[in-house]
Amino acid sequence: MYVGLMLITTYCREPFTPDFETGTNDYLVVEGFINVGIKGVTTIKLSRVAPLLTSKRVSEKSASINIENEAGSKFPLYEVSNGIYLSDSLNLNQSNKHKLLITTHNGKQYKSALVQPKITPVIDSINWRLKDGSINFYVNAHDDANTTHYYKWNYQETWEINSDYKSRYAYVNGQLEIRNVIEKDNMFYCWRYNASEDLQISSTSQFDVDAISYRIVNLPYFSEQTSVKYSILVEQRTLTKEEFDYLQIIQKNSSVTGSLFDPLPGEIRGNIESLDDADEPVIGYMGAYTKQAKRIFVTAAQLNTNPTAKCEPVTVGMDDLNKFYGSEGVYTPINLV
After folding, report:
1. Which of 78, 112, 140, 302 is a Cys-bridge partner for 286, taking CB atoms 3.0 to 4.6 Å apart?
2. Angle at 299 between CA 294 and CA 300, to 5 degrees
């Protein structure tokens, strides 16, 4: 009796393979905020959530976006690249509430909640400290009025890299030729750039004083970034408690899915909704804020991380120039000896 039941149950069960590659959960993702600062430029990024087994983000192009205040005045944004929309330099009234209106290329309409602007306090300082073989950069801020409480940061890094040696000569058509000053400098000085990707948020709501010191970047003591000269530009803005709570959920989910705004393990609702389908999820939270920025420069001499040469020069005979510098060679001529 039991054996027969088990056989029937197994036989009737059909295998199910979920469609991870072409999932239809292409929810709209809205990133950015309404900049109510003096001559503030609002930047909004629109994209679609990727299928579950891909990491590719799909830009939402050819949309129409407007900022609208509570009086009904509208301020358009313009697409400057795929899915990136910018406003003009505006002086939005910081006393008025604002919302974002979006119409996608296929005519679907979305709007954010009408939100009251918040003013971001200035960045007091950016400092660095050495600890456990690494360099930690901190952003420091406070609000004497004790009304900010919730903070968000983005940053951009720029650092200089130098070659171990200056190449005074180039190998051209079988001959050594003296490089001009510009070419020589371009061979020696290089710069690299990086921008923050992870969410950087923190709160002072549990403290009596609205003051914060937040570690924004951690670098290895000996690294490419610290080899010559390093700079970090930090942008700071305040948040409402509602957006802070929303971003905390996003942050926790991103530690599971791998990166921000990937397919999420649970439905997350912000303050943006579809006007065509109330059940359609939209990922994003739109606030209205001012922002503050500050930059710091640090040299290898200050950090005491002056680099040593990573490669040793090789003396090459005149008969071996083509072997070392020609199409099959891997060396660069430095100087004549």
Report:
1. 112
2. 145
- Alpha-carbon distances of 113 from 49, 98, 110, 221, 234, rounded to whole Å: 22, 8, 10, 45, 28
In angstroms, the CA 259 to CA 252 distance is: 10
> pLDDT (tens digit, 9 = 90+) per residue, 193-204?
999 989 999 999
Task: Give yes or no for a contact between 289 and 117, defined as CB atoms under 8 angstroms apart.
Answer: yes
- Going by their DSSP bridges, the two strands 34-35 and 288-289 should be labelled as parallel
CA distance 45 to 198: 16
Residue 282 identity (one-letter amino acid): V
Task: Fill in the DSSP letter of residue 320.
Answer: G
Rounded to 5 degrees, φ, ψ at 189 are -100, 130
DSSP H or E stretch at residue 244: helix 241-257
- Does residue 75 contact residue 98 with C-beta atoms inside 8 Å? no
What is the C-alpha to C-alpha distance for residues 49 and 29, in angstroms, rounded to an integer? 7
Question: Could you read off the pLDDT of 119-129 as tens digits, one per residue?
Answer: 999 999 999 99
